[in-house]
Design a protein that fits this description.
The complex is a heterodimer. By secondary structure, chain A is an alpha/beta fold. Chain A contains six helices and seven strands; from the N terminus they run ααβββαβαβαββα. Chain A has a five-stranded mixed beta sheet with strand order 5-4-3-6-7. Chain B contains eleven helices and no strands. In chain B, α8 packs antiparallel against α9 and α10 packs antiparallel against α11. The radius of gyration of chain B is 30 Å and the shape is elongated. Classes of the chains: A alpha/beta, B mainly alpha. Chains A and B meet through α1, α2, α4 and α5 of A and α3, α4 and α6 of B.
Chain lengths: 191, 273
């Protein structure tokens, strides 16, 4: 044993071993990073990956498009949708949301929307055109409410349970089947 | 006498140094803090841009929120952690002190310390060996020592590389989403907003700043060619967004002058609403 250690291996062999050892941490780290990055891109599906899921819903209050005032308080399952009149996918999404809001009305489910980075007259006209007059829309001219909800674009939809915990998130025009299911799940949690 | 002069001079120098340090190290203004924090936040819909360098709606909203929180007296770390809670760890460019963060902070320093330690240890051993004429098997084999050093250096290099790679990959993932949200619908303008004033104005219009958009395109609307055509279109849309009564006349002029433009049909629909 001591004989073998006392005679150092040839220089080239030593160098090769050195390179191999040096390569190990590089490969391990690059691998870890790539796996993490893949995980992230898989999360970027419409079934949103908001870090808010499982946490208390951010504050939502302010003047509404119709001239009222709104402050969100836990107590009912609440669907929070973020939209703007300049967003064309929102135009196709809004009638669905209005239909569901009417269907849920009186059944312990509220729909509160955030009209982000928009003019009040444009928003009111947009609601008129899409049959959404009367839909609760909190004004967010600077976009800070949308940011408080961790939104990256419009439209986005969140489902908040009766205890005020965010339960689900959807990126883009919401799928009504998904939304109905998530709302039912959130209602089931209450009991 | 001479000693007294030296003492006086030394005191004077110390005083000046203290004054310089106090004056030079003033607290940053709120605007400077907003700028700094916006530079720490990654724009979630952009490719390799910070919130400070982007004009997308979400970046504008994030800047407005940073401004609000700075004005409310919240600390830098409180503000950054507020954004982490909503957008995840990756929203902040610097690694945090949670999760993988501590490894990224400690690894380069640790690797360096191991490397220096190994060199010092070897030197001491060598000195001792030389003095005592000891046999080489008492020392660490050369190959192993070299391997430890290489490991230290490699991890020192790999950690920052891996971290920057992680951010680039994240940015690349966001690219299709950014392209989807920033390309003007209908009209095809592929130039980046920085080089194309029409695209820049369109971005401003979409982000709810019709006045700023109008200021850019008004001077271009009378130009001949494609620039003038698009400028006229964006001007009309910006006026409409700003609820300026002149919008109808501008959009009518666009339809009259460019009846075959791909956007003309949509503008006609807008005019009939």
């Amino acid at each position: 044993m001591s004989e073998r250690l006392s005679t150092p291996p040839p220089r080239a062999r030593r160098l090769r071993r050195l390179c191999l050892v040096a390569l190990v941490p590089v490969l391990v780290l690059v691998g870890v990073v790539l796996v993490r990055a893949n995980g992230q891109s898989a999360d970027a599906s419409p079934h949103g990956s908001s870090p808010l899921i499982g946490h208390r819903a951010p504050a939502l209050s302010g003047p509404t498009v119709s001239g009222g005032q709104y402050t969100y308080r836990p107590g009912a399952v609440t669907v929070v949708n973020i939209w703007a009149s300049w967003c064309s996918p929102c135009r196709s999404e809004l009638p669905t949301l209005v239909r569901l809001a009417r269907q849920w009305s009186g059944h312990g489910v509220d729909v509160a929307t955030i009209d982000t980075r928009d003019g009040v007259a444009l928003a009111a006209r947009f609601l008129r055109q899409t049959g959404g007059t009367g839909l609760l829309a909190v004004r967010d001219p600077k976009g800070v409410l949308a940011v408080a909800w961790g939104a990256t674009g419009v439209p986005e939809t969140f489902v908040v349970d009766a205890d005020g915990i965010v339960r689900a998130h959807w990126n883009g025009p919401v799928d009504p089947t998904w939304l109905s299911r998530e709302v039912a799940d959130a209602q089931a949690r209450k009991s | 006498m001479r000693r007294a002069a030296v003492v006086v001079l030394a005191l004077l120098a110390a005083g000046l140094l203290a004054v310089t340090l106090v004056v030079g190290h003033r607290a940053p203004t709120n605007a400077e803090r907003v700028q700094h924090l916006s530079g720490e936040l990654r724009c979630p819909t952009c490719v390799a841009q910070t919130v400070a360098g982007s004009n997308t709606p979400v970046a504008e909203g994030m800047r407005a929120e940073v401004t609000r929180q700075v004005a409310a007296g919240r600390s830098d770390s409180q503000i950054l952690s507020w954004f982490r809670q909503r957008y995840g760890e990756d929203i902040v460019l610097m690694p945090s002190h949670h999760g993988i963060g501590p490894i990224l902070w400690v690894a380069p320093g640790g690797a360096l310390a191991i490397g220096i330690g190994a060199i010092l240890w070897r030197r001491r051993r060598r000195g001792a060996d030389r003095r005592q004429q000891a046999t080489p098997e008492h020392g660490l084999p050369n190959a192993w020592l070299a391997a430890v050093l290489a490991l230290a250096v490699a991890s020192g290099v790999a950690v920052p590389v891996a971290f920057s790679l992680q951010h680039q990959t994240g940015a690349a993932d966001a690219a299709p989403a950014a392209a989807a949200t920033t390309s003007p619908s209908g009209s095809a303008s592929t130039l980046p907003a920085e080089t194309d004033p029409i695209a820049a104005a369109f971005e401003l219009l979409k982000s709810g700043q019709p006045d700023a958009a109008e200021a850019i395109v008004r001077r271009l609307a009378d130009r001949p060619g494609k620039t003038g055509t698009l400028a006229l279109l964006v001007l009309g849309l910006a006026e409409r967004a700003a609820e300026d009564p002149a919008a109808t006349a501008t959009l009518r002029r666009f339809v009259r002058e460019h009846p075959k433009h791909p956007a003309a049909a949509q503008v006609r629909r807008l005019l009939h609403q």
